Amino acid sequence: MKSNWLTGILILSLAVNAAAIGTLGYHSFIAPPEFSTAPCFPAGDGHLYQSLNLSQEQLDKMEPLARTFHRRMVELKASMEGKRLLLIDLLQKQEDPGKIEALRREMASIQDLIQKDVIAHIADVKGVLNSKQQEQFFELLRKSMTPIRTSLSPPIGGNQ
Which of 14, 70, 79, 89 has the highest CB neighbour count under 10 A? Predict the structure, then answer.
C-alpha cells in the first residue's frame, strides 16, 4: 500500500513538472510575444534612449512613447508580412498583374506609414530630451544607422 502511494505521488509530480516545462517552452519558443521589447535602434541591451542618463520624469514620459511605438510597429510588421506572403502566392500563380500592382501599392502604403510613424516617434523622443541629450541621441542614431560593412558588402559610392 505504501509503495502504491509513493508511486502515485511520483507520477503526479512528474506530470506537474512536465506540464510546467511544456508551458514554459510554449511561452518561450512557440507563442509570439504580445509586445516586442526590441530596441528602437541597436543600443546594447535596451532602447536607445536608455543610454542618455534621463531623469525619472523623462523616463516616465519616454516609456509610454516607446510602448505605443513598438506596439504599432509590431502591428504594421505583421500586416506587411501577410502581404508579402500573399504577393509570393500571387506571383507563383501568375495572377492578374492588376492584383499584383494593387497589392504592391498596399505594401508601399504600409511602408509609408512605418516611415511616418518612425519620424513622428523620433520627434516625440526629441521633445522629451534637453539639448545635450538631443545631441547624444542624434549621434547614437547616426551610429546605429551606419551600415556594418562585411566582406560581402559592396563599397559605398560605387566601384572603388
Answer: 70
- Grid coordinates representing 38 are 526590441
Q: Which three cell numbers stand for residue 7?
A: 508511486
Do residues 40 and 66 lie in contact, with contact meaning Cβ atoms separated by under 8 Å?
yes
Q: Domain ranges in the chain? A: 55-143
Give the pLDDT mean for 24-29.
56
Average pLDDT, the chain: 77
Contacts of 66 (CB under 8 A, 6+ apart): 40, 47, 49
Calculate mean pLDDT across residues 48-53. 73
For the entire predicted model, the pTM comes to 0.60
Count of H helices and E strands in the chain?
4, 0
